[in-house]
Amino acid sequence: MPLKQTFGFLGAGRMATALAGGMVQADLVKGRQLVASDVVSKTLEAFAKATGGKALKTNGEVLRKADVVIIAVKPHQVTNLLRDLASEAKSHHLFISIAAGVTLEQLEEALGGKVRVIRVMPNTPALVGEGAAGFARGTHAKAADAKLTQQILEAVGVAVEVPE
User: Contact, 111 vs 82, CB < 8 A?
Assistant: First the structure.
């Protein structure tokens, strides 16, 4: 069943592109439902070309356009990035992190503690649609958020909810 949300990617590298591309291929979304930002313009251009998504200039623009925000930057960049965006995080946002090693506690704290967060640990076979991922819900994430996350992840493999 097609999804209605707009999906924003903070970071548009290989894993973000694979996930977004898988969502399009699985007919979960149309390219127009995808937006992304990245500090490397060639990476952002490649994301847009591969997915049909829109390249945006800033992370703030991604938050203003997206309902679901996928955090796909390098792990050492996550907390500072999210602290910079915390004031723009709204109650309708669901944040899904695919950054390795960044805990739910760190994600929630960086975003001000009030938003819905899910942490995912995808693996590289997701790049070719054969991934396996575990995901865990944060304090405020609901069952519907877990269901949506599972749908997204199953576009590139299998997914199962696990405890943090």
Answer: yes
